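Backbone geometry tokens:
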Amino acid sequence: MIHEGVDMGIGFVPDIIIDNKLILELKSIETLAEVHYKQLLTYLRLTKLKLGLLINFNVPLIKSGIHRIANNL
């Protein structure tokens, strides 16, 4: 993964980066674990972006599966 000309390595693979402002991390699992939140926060810190959404599609209502993660806001 290369972000703004910097090679982030093979371990850094965010699902979607939108307009260098927002990271979307997509899951389809029964329950989100603490490690999923920390994974997104690590991606935000490495890219110096401020906002990310952790979205779990394996929920009855999608609005209950969307979690906003902020980096230094």
